Amino acid sequence: MRKPIIAGNWKMNNNIKDTQELLKGIKKAALDESVEVVVCPPYISLYEASKILDSTKIGIGAQNMHWEDKGAYTGEISPFMLKEIGCKYIIIGHSERRQYFGETDEMVNLKVKSALDNQMVPIICVGEDMEQREKGQTVVVVSEQVKKGISGLTPKQALSIVIAYEPIWAIGTGMSSKGEDANKVAQFIRDIIKDLFGERISEKVRILYGGSVNPNNIKEYMSQSDIDGALVGGASLKADDFIELVNYKK
C-alpha cells in the first residue's frame, strides 16, 4: 500500500511573515495522518518553516538545488546545506526550471543522484507541453524524461524516488488533465519503472499528479489506481485549501 503524498510547491511566493502565517494556519488543523504532507517554500523561508513545523509530521522540501555539496557556483544552494536546515524533499526538474533556466534531463539526473546520496527524497517532475500533447507525443516525451532522469540508479535508490506527472499545459492555467487521462500516464510511468527495476519496486514508487489541482478535483485524481498524491501550486498558498486537499478522504 503506497502512502499518499500531498506536496505544496509555493514557487516564488511568500516572504517570511507570510510563511509564518500560512504554516501556523496549517499546523493547527487536524490533518489526515494517513497522508504524507510536504511544503516547499522559497529558500529564504525554509529555515523558518523548519522551526515552525519541528514538532509536526509535516515535511519540508526545497524547490531546487545544485548537485554539488559545495563549490564555486554563485547563487546556488547545495543538498548538504538544505539537509542541514531540515529539508527532506527536493523538487527536481520542474517544467519552470527546464523552460526558464535551461535545466536538462542530464542535469536532472545529477540532482536526483545527489539528493539520494544526501538521504533526501527527490520529487522528479515530468510532463509534456500543449504542442507535444496535440501531436500525440506525450508518451515519447514523458518516457525520455523519466528514463534519463533516473538513469544509473540502483534498485534500492529507485525505492526512494517520487515522480510527479505535471503536464505543462495544465500548470497555473486553470486547465487540468482528466483523472483517467492522468492515470494512464501514471500507469505508463510505472511500467517504465517496472521494466528498469522490476515489478516489486514499481509497485512501491509513488507517482503524483500536478497541474491545477484544487479542492474541487482532488478526489478525482486520488480515486485513480496509479496516482498516489498531488504536487500542488496555487492551492497550497491558502491554508484552508491546502488543508482540504490533505483531508480529501473526509
Q: Could you describe the 3D structure shown?
A:
42% of the residues lie in helices and 14% in strands. It has 250 residues and is an alpha/beta fold. The protein has a domain at 65-230: Aldolase class I (TIM Barrel, Alpha-Beta Barrel). The protein has an 8-stranded parallel β-sheet with strand order 7-6-5-4-3-2-1-8. Strand 3, helix 3 and strand 4 form a beta-alpha-beta unit. Helix 1 (16-27) packs parallel to helix 2 (43-52), helix 1 crosses helix 12 (239-246) and helix 5 (105-117) packs across helix 7. The longest helix is centred in the last third of the chain and has 19 residues, at 179-197. The chain is globular and about 45 Å long.
Give the topology, please:
Blueprint: E1 5-9, H1 16-27, E2 36-40, H2 43-52, E3 59-62, H3 79-84, E4 89-92, H4 95-101, H5 105-117, E5 121-126, H6 130-134, H7 138-149, H8 155-158, E6 162-165, H9 179-197, H10 199-202, E7 206-209, H11 218-222, E8 229-232, H12 239-246
Parallel strand pairs: 1-2, 1-8, 2-3, 3-4, 4-5, 5-6, 6-7
Helix pairs in contact: 1-2, 1-12, 5-7, 7-9
